[in-house]
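Hello,

Our lab assistant flagged a job as stuck in the queue for most of the afternoon. It eventually completed. Since we weren't sure the result was trustworthy after the delay, we are filing this so someone can double-check. Below is the sequence as submitted and the structure that was eventually returned. Let us know if re-running is recommended.
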Amino acid sequence: MHQVSKAILVLACLRLICVPVHTWAHQPAGLNSSRWGVSEPPLLSESTPVPAPLPNDSAPATGRTSAAPSATSPESFPHVVLWTQENKPVQFYADLLQGKVVLINFFYTSCTSYCPRTTANLARLQDQFGEHFGRDVVMLSITVDPTVDTPPVLKKYAEAFKPKPGWYFLTGTKEDINQIRRKLGVYERNGDKTQHTGVLIYGNEALGTWTATHALLKPDFIASAVRRLITTQ
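-- returned structure --
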């Protein structure tokens, strides 16, 4: 009887670990009004801790990775100016999101826990998209500590990870970055920079389909889910 119970427990654990990533296409709604879907995909290693769940006013925290709220119009996103690691100004919506498949994570250069591991994993992920990367697919790593993380600081940090064209390390004003975080549901009122640095948000702006998952998943696993959102040849 004890062996049977143990076998059932093992199978239950395997089922929990091996649920695939899904994408959620939400009905038209404001960014902060959709409820969160839930998924628990496998992590990069069994010892990798699960990042904090994304918050939402209409759904309680579950301790699981959740689907990000949908955005179905340009007005859903902040039209703010950010600065790249090359010290170039870019429009968050018009230059970085519009008509693209986008992967977004938040980090800060002085972080010593999730951020270096996440960034290293994204460095491997960028190689998964071939000619689509930089054209149809872009990655945005946005600092949550813009006072410290100026463009020169971001450039020095990014150089260690050899970003290809299409991977932007971004800074801006605190107010503008907080506005972006609010729209994506990853803003912490208590100012805790460490929250959600282990989360990767990805979606197709034109389709209004957005999902959040663990940023430390195996790169090929993340890429297989993101490719479903690529509609160009």
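-- support follow-up --
The delay was a queue issue, not a problem with the job. The result is valid. The CA atoms of residues 43 and 49 lie 8 Å apart. The first strand starts at residue 38 and ends at 39.
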